[in-house]
Backbone:
């Protein structure tokens, strides 16, 4: 086998050919032999054991038998038509049943040869049969291949139609392994292999597809997961150290008048310890001469806006401009008002730039940014458009980053000759291990303390039949001067239906809470942004007591007087969304409530979500449950997971391996930051190789 052998196109593998190759590329992105080698089984079935027919029980998930076919027949008519093979281990007989493919099966079976049968036994009228079993001639090859821990591969309808179900793919793997003939190069250094007692790569790749036994399989999987996570961490850490060593950042050398004036004379409340700590961390970053990339994580309501504002003042004190970007217009507008209130005290000018800023206003903002007159800008994506040019942008704050991707971060980098400092604020609590992966190249600050005097929000679950009680409760709260949110789900696939639900809900609320005693605001995606603004402002100013909305209010909206959050069809929301929504209340000193409305019948998963919400207010705990329910790949805030392109490791369940991989990568880079040492050459080479194949991959994709 030559080193380039594995780069051979998949269509040249024996048993593939152009048609199957096309399907493999399309369905599983398998272009080359190497890709096939890295298509890992997602589970194994234990086929080490053969049973006798009289040992079969109803509890067995699978059973494997050896024996001969006595006779076959087609029985029944129409829908119950089936093909039956009477299979015997020479003592007893069991029926193998197929509901399709009778003709083909008839021609396939011979009476005089021995078969291996594998399938799930089903009890029918007191007798066992095995519907649609796997069946293979018991040749020596098959016995070796079949009677083991057997890999199960992912497949798709299209592939199955081309004979590439899990079994078909396993056969391709077998062919490939014969050709490779134990010639897979090692990718981890000797030191690492020895220190961690890792299986060689060759042996690992062999055992992961064709395990010699349980221990070998475990060792193989560990080795491959470790390798994958190790190179991921090595890459992230190297990016980080590269940035720190080469890209000189803008220096915020001093704390100046704006910061001091505001800090000592205009703070609307004393900062919490956590806020102070994070501001200090930011100051020391920005004053270090390195470019800052910091993620500030703090649960909803922990006071991230103030931290952002103080950081922006630091930028201005050092002669730079600062901007803040939010994911939605409503949120940007809210930030604008909050920040304007603070900035007014310092006679600092702030502007708002969003998609609906008028052309005239926009032009003026562009000019004033470019000549440096305007120091402070708040906005949406509109901020990163090409036409927006700053004179000297020093700090960009990105709020609720999970809505933005890596690309936006890069675009902000380019807004200044030297990249500005970047501060990312997120309320999505991400378990540490995920943060380590997705933001592995960022520094992390955590605001882990709530402003004082907050009472935890009480969360209740009510079913639709208790609606009258709900309305009574809302009236009481409104009588006491409180305000109420009522939120409806917004699911893109059925936008029409959602809109209908929202409007029906609005109508029935209007009937129950009539004018002039009550005023209701409504905000949804079909309104113009002027209209949204107006409705929002009516609620913010207290003119309306009830805000009916879709999830557009999910992030960041701040109305401390609002004390009740009613979430309609709560079962349709994900956990992190529910948590975000609940975070809209409980911002003032009053007892707040979150009421989860749902129909009576719930799936187990929906029930777990709702119960979790009722049991805890802790964002991190909720994130952990969310991660367990959904798997890490789907979590909000982790859309980049696809970019990680992990083939065998799972960032949810392989936490320990990830930690180990990270600390070992750190150790290596500490001693040898550029991987110049002889012993690290292999690592360097493999990093380059991975980078190269990733670029090719993304070009094809
Ligand atoms: P988030 O972290 O969710 O963005 P905000 O910055 O919107 O939170 O702050 C939530 C509320 O808490 C706001 O009304 C804000 O004025 C208030 N707040 C922030 N920090 C403090 C503090 N240290 N003491 C009291 N209230 C605070
Ligand atoms: Mg916020």
Residues:
């Amino acid at each position: 086998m030559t080193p380039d052998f594995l780069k051979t196109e998949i269509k040249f593998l024996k048993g593939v050919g152009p048609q199957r190759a096309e399907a493999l590329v399309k369905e599983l992105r398998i272009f080359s032999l190497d890709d096939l080698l890295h298509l890992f089984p997602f589970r194994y079935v234990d086929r080490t054991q053969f049973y006798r027919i009289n040992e079969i029980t109803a509890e067995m998930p699978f059973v494997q038998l050896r024996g001969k076919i006595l006779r076959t027949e087609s029985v029944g008519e129409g829908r119950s038509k089936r093909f039956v093979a009477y299979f015997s281990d020479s003592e007893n007989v069991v029926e193998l049943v197929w509901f399709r493919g009778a003709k083909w099966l008839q021609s396939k079976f011979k009476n005089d040869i021995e078969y291996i049968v594998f399938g799930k036994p089903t009890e029918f009228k007191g007798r066992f049969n095995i519907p649609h079993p796997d069946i293979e001639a018991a040749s020596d090859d098959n016995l070796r291949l079949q009677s083991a821990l057997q890999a199960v591969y992912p497949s798709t309808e299209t592939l199955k139609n081309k004979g590439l179900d899990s079994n078909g793919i396993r056969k391709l793997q077998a062919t490939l392994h014969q050709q490779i003939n134990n010639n897979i190069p090692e990718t981890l250094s000797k030191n690492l292999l020895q220190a961690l007692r890792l299986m060689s790569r060759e042996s690992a790749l062999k055992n992961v597809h064709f395990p010699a036994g349980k221990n070998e399989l475990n060792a193989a999987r560990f080795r491959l997961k470790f390798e994958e996570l190790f190179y991921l961490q090595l890459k992230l850490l190297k990016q980080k150290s590269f940035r720190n060593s080469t890209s000189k950042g803008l220096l915020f050398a001093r704390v100046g008048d704006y910061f001091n004036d505001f800090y000592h004379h205009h703070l609307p409340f004393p900062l919490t310890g956590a806020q102070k700590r994070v501001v200090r961390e930011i100051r020391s970053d920005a004053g270090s001469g390195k470019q800052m990339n910091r993620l500030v994580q703090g649960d909803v309501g922990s006071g991230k806006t103030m931290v952002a504002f103080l950081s922006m003042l630091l930028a201005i004190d050092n002669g730079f401009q600062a901007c803040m970007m939010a994911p939605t217009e409503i949120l940007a507008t809210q930030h604008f008002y909050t920040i304007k209130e603070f900035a007014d005290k310092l006679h600092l000018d702030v502007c708002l730039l969003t998609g609906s800023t008028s052309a005239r206003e926009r032009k003026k903002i562009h000019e004033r940014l470019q000549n440096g007159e305007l120091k402070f800008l708040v906005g949406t994506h509109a901020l990163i458009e090409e036409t927006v040019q700053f004179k000297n942008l020093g700090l960009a704050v990105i709020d609720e980053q999970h809505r933005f991707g890596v690309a936006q971060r890069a675009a902000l980098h380019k807004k200044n000759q030297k990249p500005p400092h970047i501060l990312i604020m997120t309320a999505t609590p991400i378990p540490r291990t995920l943060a380590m992966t997705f933001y592995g190249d960022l520094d992390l600050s955590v605001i882990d303390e709530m402003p004082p005097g907050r009472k935890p929000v009480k969360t209740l679950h009510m079913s639709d039949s208790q609606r009258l009680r709900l309305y009574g409760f809302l009236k009481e709260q409104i009588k006491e001067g409180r305000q109420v949110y009522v939120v409806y789900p917004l699911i893109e696939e059925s936008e029409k239906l959602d809109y209908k639900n929202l409007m029906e809900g609005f109508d029935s609320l209007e009937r129950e809470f009539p004018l002039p005693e009550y005023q209701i605001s409504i905000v949804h995606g079909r309104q113009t942004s002027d209209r949204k603004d107006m409705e929002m402002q009516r609620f913010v100013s207290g003119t309306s007591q009830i805000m009916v909305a879709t999830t557009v209010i999910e992030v960041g909206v701040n109305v401390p007087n609002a004390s009740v959050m009613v979430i309609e069809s709560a079962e349709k929301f994900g956990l992190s969304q529910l948590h975000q929504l609940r975070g809209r209340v409980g911002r003032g000193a009053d007892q707040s409530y979150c009421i989860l409305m749902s129909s009576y019948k719930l799936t187990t998963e929906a029930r777990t979500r709702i119960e979790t919400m009722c049991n805890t207010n802790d964002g991190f705990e909720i994130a952990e449950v969310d991660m367990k329910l959904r798997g890490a790949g789907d979590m909000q805030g982790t859309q980049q997971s696809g970019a990680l392109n992990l083939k065998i490791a799972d960032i949810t369940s392989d936490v320990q391996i990830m930690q180990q991989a990270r600390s070992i990568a750190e150790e290596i880079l500490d001693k040898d930051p550029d991987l110049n040492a002889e012993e690290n050459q292999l690592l360097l080479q493999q990093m380059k190789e991975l980078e190269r194949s990733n670029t090719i991959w993304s070009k094809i994709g």
Summary: The pocket of magnesium ion (ligand 2) is lined by residues 304-305, 399, 556 (CB under 6 Å).
